[in-house]
């Protein structure tokens, strides 16, 4: 996740209202935000960067 974060095997879920990442091992939500808080996304090699809030990001590959 972003700079200095941990890499965790997750499932990405996107609905009309929420974006979530669910940890496959712990079976718990490790990230969530309202879709309205997503300000953009970009491809970075094999990863998808999701920008939210005030420019924070989560990187998914």
UniProtKB/TrEMBL annotation:
Superkingdom assignment: Eukaryota
Protein name: SI1L3 protein
């Amino acid at each position: 996740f972003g700079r200095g974060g941990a890499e965790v095997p997750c499932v990405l879920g996107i609905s009309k209202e929420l974006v979530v990442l669910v940890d496959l091992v712990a079976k718990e939500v490790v990230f969530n935000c309202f879709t309205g808080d997503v300000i953009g996304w970009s491809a970075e090699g094999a990863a998808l960067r999701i920008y939210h809030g005030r420019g924070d990001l989560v990187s998914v590959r």
